[in-house]
Write a structure and sequence with these properties.
Oligomer: single chain
Strand order of the largest sheet: 3-5-4
Helix content: 40-55%
Structural class: mainly alpha
Distance between the termini: 56 Å
CATH topology of the largest domain: Arc Repressor Mutant, subunit A
Shape: globular
Number of strands: 5
Order of helices and strands: EEHHEHHEEHHHHH
Strand content: 5-15%
CATH class of the largest domain: Mainly Alpha
Number of helices: 9
């Protein structure tokens, strides 16, 4: 399905990146001759762990990334449009799956600041079966920080519009203040949960259009001392509220009798 087949784990298999012997047998057993002796991926305990942790869509994306990543580094150049076409998913779905991979610490994405340019992704050691070579230079930078904020913000259904120059300027200010991305992510959860409640109660004019909406919430979250369990609860709560809002928005409006 993804262009390269998955290879079942075997304790007796030879190196997966080098050609097999002329017989093409795996483990020396009869009838185990490979059609294609090269190009296999070591789908062992790391992949099994991901299968129990991720949603179906995120796991499919993870497999695609594994099959196409550099074996020596676990890195892959990516483009959201290309991924959407390859997996036959929408760009918003790809953004949601990518955020799930990052949230579950399966990978670390470093996308380009411009959506039309390629970015890259690095699969975490605990989900990558190969020994790595020398690590690439991964120093944090403004472009990476800004893109992470864009991805996190646009993963929420109540956020519309593009991430424009004003948003980039505010992200640069947050970067200058050294605001942790986790704090920004928590502010998005809190701000969006409040937005959904307001819209469901008919108290809000419409979706969020810019990063500025979350400015005071980011500062508020910086003063909070909440447990990880609270943020997990809030994430689930925000997802439920988003689902309710999307259902309500999809219903046809009743007409007043003439």
């Amino acid at each position: 399905m993804f262009g390269r087949p998955l290879r079942p784990p075997s304790q007796h298999s030879q190196s997966l990146d080098s050609p097999l012997g002329t017989s093409g047998n795996v483990g020396g057993g009869p009838g185990a001759k490979l059609k294609h002796p090269t190009g296999w991926f070591a789908a062992g305990r790391e992949v099994s762990r991901a299968a129990t942790l991720l949603s179906d869509g995120a796991f499919k994306l993870y497999i695609y990334l594994c099959l196409n990543a550099d074996r020596s580094t676990g890195h892959l150049k990516i483009d959201h449009s290309h991924l959407a076409n390859a997996l036959q998913k929408s760009r918003r779905s790809i953004v949601t799956y990518m955020e799930e991979l990052r949230r579950q610490q399966v990978c670390r994405s470093v996308d380009a600041v411009n959506q039309h340019l390629g970015g890259s992704i690095e699969i975490a050691d605990s989900f990558w079966p190969y020994e790595r070579g020398l690590p690439a230079n991964r120093l944090p930078c403004l472009a990476e920080y800004t893109e992470q904020i864009r991805v996190l913000m646009q993963a929420h259904g109540c956020v519309t519009g593009t991430f424009g120059p004003a948003d980039e300027k505010l992200a640069a200010e947050l970067f200058r203040r050294q605001i942790p991305l986790e704090q920004v992510e928590h502010a998005f959860l809190l701000g969006c949960a409040r937005k959904y409640v307001a819209m469901l109660n008919g108290q809000a004019s419409g979706p969020v259009a810019s990063l500025k909406y979350f400015g005071t919430v980011i500062d508020e979250v910086g003063q909070l001392q909440m447990s990880a369990d609270y943020w997990k609860y809030l994430r689930n709560r925000a997802h439920r509220l988003e689902h309710q809002w999307l259902q309500k928005a999809a219903r046809p409006k009743s007409r007043c009798p003439s």
